[in-house]
């Protein structure tokens, strides 16, 4: 009798344990399901936000179909070498004045090498602006917008400009602030003011900058012993710092803020699916893979106006380097033979 009671009690205890285990499993399953659905919802929200930002920011190049006239076939950034023209626009808030491209940079990316070459073009560079005349390259934007700058760059370097990005000064500061600032290596001590006459101080060595500080740092020229070249170098530092921050995993937590800033301040012909494909395929790309290049030349005054005249050998060398990087030619001998035709 006692044995039967003991056996019955064991069965009851086992049943209770099983019921508890089943309840734990159900609770755990419910908990994991909630987490999974939350992640899906957040990811979907971020994807939607990115889509909205990309849609608001997307602007085609007038007069161009699917590719540059210097391309035989369209390019895809997930698999092909491509170029991007980066324009920092100084707006004058005047319907009769487009503003000027205060910053002009050209970046080329090679997917096989996973390297980028970043070229600064001095804004006073003396060039032939298509359908206009010889003038400073930063006047091209005020004459014909991004299309005229693209045409000028393609004529100067004889390489296709596949994509462009324009960002205004307010967008520049907002992007830097949203990313949490950027760190640069200040070449020497100096101070300068912003448009509101606020003064900012910079000290030699590594220094973290917020958006407004980064704008003042990037624009200062008169105190730099290298003039526009020093200014261009500091601008490339900022671009490299932004790339470093964007490639950081922490950026994902701010994606909704970032896409909002992009939507309001950036214009580009790069579609969302292309940008996402690039980020997915090259998640480890960073500023260490960027080679910074300067155009060499000399100062010149024409009718009392200052210009920077690029050296022909420097342009030829740069053209060759970028063509090779974009895999438009296989070696320097090929461009030499083309020049002789």
Your description of this structure?
This protein is of the alpha+beta class and 341 residues long. The protein has one domain: Aminopeptidase, CATH 3.40.630.190. It contains 9 helices and 14 strands. The strands form 5 sheets. It has a 6-stranded mixed sheet, sandwiched between helices. A two-stranded antiparallel ribbon has the order 4-5. The radius of gyration is 27 Å and the shape is globular. Mean pLDDT is 80; it is low at 36-43 and 92-97.
Name its key features.
341 residues; alpha+beta; Aminopeptidase; six-stranded mixed sheet; two-stranded antiparallel sheet; 45% helix; 22% strand
Poorly predicted runs of 5 or more residues = 36-43, 92-97
Q: Give, in spatial order, the strands making up the sheet with the most strands.
A: 11-6-1-2-3-12
Q: Kindly state the number of beta strands.
A: 14
What is the CATH first-level class name? Alpha Beta
Overall pLDDT, averaged?
A: 80
Structural class determined from secondary elements? alpha+beta
For the termini, the CA-CA separation is 111 Å
Instruction: Tell me the Rg in angstroms.
Output: 27 Å
CATH architecture field: 3-Layer(aba) Sandwich
The CATH superfamily is: LCP protein
* Fold-level CATH name: Aminopeptidase
In N-to-C order, the SSE pattern is HEEEEEHEHEEEEHHHEHEEEHH
Q: Percent of residues in beta strands?
A: 15-25%
Shape: globular
Considering DSSP H and I runs of 4 or more, what fraction of the residues is helical?
Answer: 40-55%
Number of helices: 9
Any idea how many domains? 1
- Biggest sheet overview: 6 strands, mixed
